[in-house]
Specification:
2 copies of one chain form a homodimer. By secondary structure, the first copy, chain A, is an alpha/beta fold. Chain A contains 17 helices and 21 strands.
């Protein structure tokens, strides 16, 4: 009688859910206030702390360089950001506490042991060591600026507000480094335009979760918001609105700089030959004309792989993209190519006949993708592709990264891709655009990426994963609470040791972390009944 | 290969969904900008308009009373609100357009044909007539202030922004009244505390959708945020936090006044005898002590129905509630009473024995609820109860309203409840806390409440319905986009004629309405790929 059965006809979902209104003796324990004070999310490789706490001198807190430390603009900017976070964490109470007897935590000394770097990369070193000793002296050491950034995030999470409202930190020693080098979040700015300030807000969220890649699925069938200097018609004709729903070169630069300061790579995806309807609007002749019988029917299919103009276009566009986006990698897409339009087009079929591939549209797809890969490589790009490229037998460079997204035994696909010697990214279990009632983060958290058949060498070829929030049903109104804290579950899976996998142990820490994000200005949604000390908009 | 299979173990959901990443030839048409300019949501009973448009004199627009109109503070406040909405709708472009040849729409003349009323009620008259004639003269007539409020909302929706950025309105005639008298939204402020400004924002949303009841599920097991003057310990000990997570008497008054100005009733729910854990914390002796064997085990069950102090408490609390909340109705709950704690308690069993009801816990529940109903009636309250009260055979007053929430053939339950002669509310198909990927609003929209077996008299006893957003997974961070525009589907189902039920016809209107809500400051989530002219946070 309390079980409810729903049918969602449009997407064939059957949800057999228990009652929302729980029996009074049986309701789940709410998550209340500080559930895991001073815990760090994602959990460090080693985190030892004692019950001893030191009050934090919030109003006079100082970040300083150790005497032998290298200095760096990235570190200086982080000093400012985390200084503001610490001040803000204290709310109105920051001036009340001036204990005289206990040693106070008055600052963090940062020791960067190597010269600064400009841009984060797949190979960056994110390890760090952090210590708050019994004299309330806090030190952070790292071999690269990226480790310093990760360590400062951890340090800021060590500070917590006691019941009396005082900001304190425990005596702590942390030694930390990530398990996987590529920990990404995909946002899709084509199905809906995502305003720049919403993107920046989510880059803040990524930093708070030690996510280090923003996979920017910037264009797709529905709209082309990227403003190209070489091909201005692409956004002029392909954006939802050519003035208000675009990313100018300055917008792109702002996003990249904002991410760089937080040690986050921005990897753009220009998906071809499918997912290109909007691209075709501003580039006549690019897409295949679909035919009904012997006449064009007004529809367009994937990019036309049989004409040279296609490759000139790709070369010019990607050369521009390479100069705008600083990362060594581009995501080339390559997924979900429909053959029906190619099949209908006489010119395509004639070309295939003259090239001895009559009827073999997979081969045609290979021809296209091969050339795009070669162009990208010649420009100097390393590349990521969706799994179909390899599934369809395209010859790719040895250093290609293959992203596994189809949620039909992704473990088998990882085994296959790594057996071929390619590096792999896992996205399939973490499609956050799929929603359901309840605590789906537990499912994301419980998926162990390395559980596939393969040698130790193969396991090493899995370089990380991505949480994907496709844009069909999200825009500025709801994208941030839909992403957080669900993506936090993926962040910990990809950063922390494999052994950190207990959902029950993670729950109070994730609640604490969610409340921390809320206090920092990220409208992360609740996990479960309960409350945060500082609620969103209260 | 593109189908994805998910298992959510915690709530037994199996979702078999099609791919999120559509084939490029097969992606759904995005909803772009003005999809149904000047359409009104929910759709009026009669709405006739022509293609002829008049520019609106936005910057000098005037609301005026007709010469014979009654005047009213509620109307005056609405003039101010809708004046601001009209000015805001024009954005930066309001001063550009000064056409000289076309007649301009310069104002709306309001004719209230009856004296003002203070508070909205179940019996209020919400009908109105609205006209924009060929001389660009706009008039609104209604027999009550509530009709004027509904008509002003419709009028504001007739104005739309043309592609050139000019605000215009079509020649229009509308005759309108609601299909059902009770069109409610339940928000739950116990599983999560919902900040007052978030409640007010959603009352705005209700007004934009002609929802006329805010069902305030104010307390439950998890927390008791209502501050009682007679029993201050209820919130002092039962709220999540007795200072920051409460509704003071002033907060309650603010919510009621904000709703009153918009013609929206506030019906509080104080659910008993179950769902009362938090209530027990501040009122020792109220709840039943649960036993293991012959000893109390520290847990508490439903309210103890066998002691007189219980009824004194209810009488005092509800008397206070009656003076704070102005509506004639209270929701008394009565759902999901677990018997196991009563069964374990020796004193309860002894009392039952001495009252000749040994082992009959349904009878015990009846005894409790009967007295609560009698107390409520004596105070002067009419009441709403959840369906179990009637299912369990409690004798209720003839004017009781029974709310059907269990989603197991709610049509049969409606048939049963109305056959017994009670009025009914339908909530079962509209539990918006259940979420799934895709356009679930279509399912809400397609549920026809009157499709149950019964006579014409029985059909009349169905007085409306409610969209319920239980609070387990929503708070200020996400409650508003989760509610809107999904609740808008229910709003149209309950307001518009039964024949207005075509999902495809509703889609462009709902997109337009969603974008309108966004522009007015409600972060309503997107329905589908596409864009609004004015995006949230862009």
């Amino acid at each position: 009688m309390l079980r409810q059965l729903f049918f969602v006809t449009s997407i064939a979902v059957v949800a057999l859910a228990n009652s929302q209104r729980k029996l009074s003796l049986d309701f789940p324990t709410p998550l209340l206030g500080n559930t895991s004070p001073g815990s760090v999310w994602p959990q460090p490789e080693s985190h030892v702390s004692t019950a001893e706490t030191f009050p934090v001198a919030v109003e006079s807190f100082m970040f300083t360089y150790a005497s032998k430390s290298y200095k760096c603009d990235l570190v200086y900017e982080a000093f400012k950001r985390y200084g503001a976070i610490i001040i803000n964490s204290a709310g109105d109470q920051k001036l009340r506490f001036r204990p005289l007897t206990t040693p106070m935590l008055t600052g963090l000394e940062v020791n960067l042991m190597a010269p600064c770097e400009d841009y984060p990369s797949l190979d960056m070193d994110e390890s760090y060591a952090l210590d708050i000793n019994s004299m309330a002296v806090a030190t952070l050491t790292a071999k690269s600026v990226w480790g310093i950034l990760r360590g400062m995030e951890s340090f800021s999470q060590l500070l917590w507000e006691s019941d009396s409202g005082q900001i304190v930190a425990n005596k702590t020693n942390i030694i930390d480094k990530p398990r996987y080098a590529h920990r990404g979040i995909l946002l899709d700015t084509s199905r809906h335009y995502q305003p720049v300030n919403v993107i920046l807000e989510n880059i803040d969220g990524m930093a708070y979760n030690k996510i280090n890649v923003f996979h920017w699925h910037i264009v797709d069938d529905q709209s082309f918001p990227y403003v190209s200097t070489v091909y201005p018609d692409l956004s002029a004709k392909g954006a939802y609105n050519p003035i208000t729903h675009i990313y100018t070169i300055e917008d792109v630069a702002e996003v990249i700089e904002y991410a760089r300061l937080r040690g986050i790579r921005v990897v753009p995806e220009f998906d071809t030959p499918g997912h290109t309807t909007s691209m075709g609007k501003g580039q006549p002749g690019l897409l295949t004309e679909c035919y009904t019988g012997s006449n064009p029917n007004g529809n367009y299919g994937p990019i036309n792989p049989t004409v040279n103009t296609t490759y000139t276009f790709i070369q010019n566009l990607f050369t521009e993209v390479k100069s705008s986006f600083k990362d060594a990698y581009i995501h080339l897409g390559g997924d979900e190519v429909s053959f029906s339009c190619w099949q209908s087009n006489p010119a395509i079929n004639n070309w295939m006949k003259s090239h001895n591939m009559t009827g073999d549209y997979k081969k045609l797809e290979q021809v296209y993708i091969q050339q795009v890969l070669d162009i990208s490589a010649a420009i100097g790009y390393s590349y990521i592709v969706w799994q179909e490229v390899v599934d369809n037998g395209v010859k790719v460079k040895a250093d290609t990264v293959v992203e596994v997204w189809i949620n039909n035994h992704p473990d088998n696909e990882l085994a296959k891709v790594t057996a071929l010697g390619y590096r792999a990214l896992l996205a399939a279990p973490w499609y956050l655009d799929y929603i359901s009632t309840g605590e789906d983060w537990k499912r994301y958290y419980s998926y162990e990426p390395s559980n596939f058949n393969g040698t130790a060498e193969q396991k090493k070829l899995l370089i990380g994963g991505e949480a994907c929030l496709w844009g069909e049903y999200v825009d500025g109104s709801n994208v941030t609470p839909r992403l957080w804290p669900r993506a936090s579950a993926v962040a910990e899976r990809l950063w922390s040791p494999e052994t950190v996998n207990d959902v029950d142990a993670a729950t109070p820490r994730l609640h604490q972390h969610r409340c921390r994000m809320v206090q920092r200005g990220i409208p992360a949604e609740p996990l479960h009944p309960g409350y945060c000390k500082h609620e969103w908009r209260n």
